[in-house]
Amino acid sequence: QVQPVESGGGLVQAGGSLRLSCAASGRTFSRYAMGWFRQAPGKEREFVAAIVWSRNITVYADLVKGRFTVSRDNAKNTVYLQMNSLKPEDTAVYYCNPGTRMYGSSWHGFGSWGQGTQVTVSS
């Protein structure tokens, strides 16, 4: 069972940047993707971005496309989410999930969830 640990969140002004990290302990399931999701207060958890372990293919939600970049370091078993041009509406708890895959027409996390890391963007 792959257990993710997120870090790197914080408070930043609108227009600023943050880089989140997701360290995955345990065996990595190469046929899945590592996905980033976020949940704002009072809202459902939503897909943000994903990177497919075996092919280095990246996928982004329309809301973050062009601003966020997902990457990985296989040697460290770590996935990163570089977030630029942050907006107040990006404020949420960000989670990564090592069992992310397409189900139906959208991406879902079927693996373990970590504690998440809080990102707050002030206007």
The mean pLDDT is 92
Task: Give the terminus-to-terminus CA distance.
Answer: 39 Å
Estimate the strand proportion.
over 45%
Secondary structural class? mainly beta
Q: What is the string of helix and strand elements?
A: EEEEEEEEEEE
Which residue ranges are poorly predicted, with pLDDT under 50 across at least 5 consecutive positions? Answer: none
Largest sheet: 7 strands, mixed
Which word captures the global form? Answer: globular
Number of strands: 11
Task: Write up this protein.
With 123 residues, the chain is mainly β. The protein has no helices and eleven strands. The strands form two sheets. Strands 2, 4, 5, 6, 9, 10 and 11 form a seven-stranded mixed sheet that branches. Strands 1-3-8-7 form a four-stranded antiparallel sheet, with no helix packed on it. A hairpin with a 2-residue loop joins β9 and β10. The protein is globular and about 40 Å long.
